[in-house]
Write a structure and sequence with these properties.
The chain has 373 residues and is α/β, with parallel strands linked by helices. It has two domains: 110 residues, Aspartate Aminotransferase, domain 1 (Alpha-Beta Complex), CATH 3.90.1150; 221 residues, Type I PLP-dependent aspartate aminotransferase-like (Major domain) (Aspartate Aminotransferase, domain 2), CATH 3.40.640.10. It has 13 helices and twelve strands. Strands 2-8-7-6-5-3-4 form a seven-stranded mixed sheet. Strands 9-12-11 form a three-stranded antiparallel sheet. It has a two-stranded parallel sheet with strand order 1-10. Strand 5, helix 7 and strand 6 form a beta-alpha-beta unit. Helix 3 packs parallel to helix 10. The chain is globular. The protein starts with a helix and ends with a helix.
Length: 373
Amino acid sequence: MTLLEPHLNDLKALDSAARLRRLQPRTGLDFSSNDYLGLARAQRLRDAVAAALARGVAIGSGGSRLLRGNDPEHEALEAEAAAFFGSESALFFSSGYAANAALLSTLPQRGDLIVHDALIHASAHEGMRLARAESVAAPHNDAGAVDQAIADWRRRGGTGRAWIAVESLYSMDGDRAPLADLATVAARHEAMLLIDEAHATGVFGPGGRGLAADLEGAENVITLRTCGKALGCEGALLCGPRTMRDFLVNRGRAFIFSTAPSPLMASAVRESLRLLADEPDRRERLSALIAFAERTLGPCGVTPTGSQILPLIIGEDAPTMRLAAALQAAGFDIRGIRPPTVPPGTARLRVSLTLNVGEAEIAALAETLLELM
């Protein structure tokens, strides 16, 4: 018996269930990335990085933000992001996972309650696992169930703060949260509303400010805006009240004890926010692609969502992965999504639309899908 034999047996079990994951190179047409606006290779971002290097911006931060890692580029980004999104403050993290984990493990306190959507990101679950507060799942996109969960907790004697955690646009189903209803529930219970805008930032809302743009700036609203999806960069911004920022700087272990993100990346994100304002045609082109894809891929069984995320539910894991492999062999980079990322029995292909493809590529995908199915 080797020291890691239990781990090896676990990997074998995953393989037999068609759930073993392997790293794959990027090949074929992009129908799997989150580079929705095609900014990851945008010339303006390349030029911004080159200009930052030329003026002496460091590649590495050299330490945590509370030591010597706090760079003027970090602070400039946070000020510009707060102004862009309409929040009182912003705090830059190295990733959306780190930001979600820090937020939910730090702000809710012992005696509080976190009510989260059943399909919320894994990073939010990690934060709740580390949190002092009790947490409970509510059925997906059911504001009434959130309301009832808080009311039941109060009746049982709950006296702390309620926290409601949702995504504005869900990463695997492509559907939207009932944000207006959730804001009403939050106001009724004097609850904090935490909105993960990872897949909406840059794509939806006025100027690409997300689906929660109308709620931003409220005292009880905190939004998470990742920079590695539609913004084409890396990292994440937590936007909300100044007290949120100050508390995370003082109590957020994931922030305090992490090396600060690259100042060079902060420079790139600043340019990406400006690009959103300067090039609204990118959002318009993506919107047109979404409409075209829903018409073209609908006969293949793809679920229309009105967003850039279009799931094709297959059900079982093995057939899903066989279809994904066949599409990849045909030149389409589409990945199979299996439990535990999605609920059992809902394994799927996640068709992600970006400006890295056009109508001709979508039509070719539809033709190939029909042949394979």
